[in-house]
Predict the structure.
Amino acid sequence: MVWEPMRKGLSVQTSGADLNWRSLVDRFGIDKTEAKKRIRDMESCESWGNDIYSASVCRRIGIGYFDSFKEVYNGVTDNEIIWISYHRRDRQPVHDWRDIQNIKNDIAGKDWEAVEVFPSESRLVDTSNEYHLFALKTIPLGWYIGRAIQTHEFVSKFGATQRDRSD
């Protein structure tokens, strides 16, 4: 599969979905004022997409909330942080590591790092196959060995499988 890069400005909505205050009232049982406030929050973020994925991208500098409802918080850094909320356009589950890496690279940049949070059950958010990355210029966690990429031919010697990369 050839990766089609994510492009800024493509709609984050899946086909056929209307985004207006009435649809939010009907879908989530909230009042008109709250629905309009949520739309303003969404409009303050960037829309990105390609042929398979859609993403809403909110950028923040400093500690604080990404949204006016105080649901998504940055308590990690005073530097820039990017919240990437993404899903497949067909709303099917996804966890293809290379696709997620490409989404991060296309939106935040190849030199940025990102984490996906698996929260405590008391803070669990699990909505319609929507996934969330939080990207920072550097995260002092994880591998520090440089690049380590193996081919299918190499890993098959150990009974593993790996797609060969196109780059």
